[in-house]
Design brief:
Layout lengths: L1 E5 L3 H13 L3 E5 L2 H7 L7 E5 L7 H12 L5 E5 L4 H9 L4 E4 L4 H15 L1 H4 L2 E4 L2 E4 L4 E4 L2 E3 L3 H12 L3
Parallel strand pairs: 1-2, 1-3, 3-4, 4-5
Antiparallel strand pairs: 6-7, 7-8, 8-9
Helix pairs in contact: 2-3
Length: 168
């Protein structure tokens, strides 16, 4: 899946990016809101991870603008050092689908992100992915076409799955 990550901490950006890439996602990183808002006009993303405090604007402003541009279907995970109940309520009220406080635990981040993606894209995130005559079985890591198994090496399977999940 294609994920946009917005945070002004370059170390955290790289940590999250490498974690998500190990889970076979494509991660685009942004250090300021303006860069993300510029790219979102011509890029498509399946999930947005946003920090609250950014150098040029608040993450909640970015999230509201993205919601106006792309609609409500894009899941948003809000990350911040703020942890008061009113901060959580504000983020969720402004359009976030989930909320995490820093320091982030990478296992929890992946689990929350996967849950958001599973709810937003149930056909793609299941154990069986079907694209017309092509069927990917994620548990067995097998591809079949018209019911016939295709002999693929691990890297070939990953590449085929990536291409089907990211058409164009």
């Amino acid at each position: 899946m294609r994920i946009a990550l917005l945070d002004d901490d370059p170390i955290l950006l790289e940590l999250i990016k490498s974690t998500l890439e190990r889970h076979h996602h494509v991660c685009h990183t942004y250090a300021d809101g303006a860069s993300l808002l510029k790219d979102i006009r011509h890029e498509t993303f399946d999930l947005l991870i946003v920090d609250w405090h950014l150098p040029d604007m608040e993450g909640s402003e970015v999230m509201q603008t993205v919601r106006q541009m792309s609609g409500l279907h894009l899941p948003v995970l809000f990350i911040t050092r703020r942890q008061d109940e009113r901060d959580v309520v504000e983020a969720l009220t402004r359009g976030a689908d989930d909320f995490m406080t820093k320091p982030l635990r990478m296992g929890e981040l992946v689990a929350r992100m996967t849950a958001l993606l599973r709810r937003a894209f149930p056909d793609v995130m299941g154990s069986r992915l079907v694209f017309g005559p092509y069927c990917f079985d994620a548990e067995r890591r097998e591809l079949s076409v018209h019911g016939q198994p295709v002999d693929l090496k691990n890297r070939e399977y990953e590449l085929a799955l990536f291409m089907f999940r990211n058409p164009g």
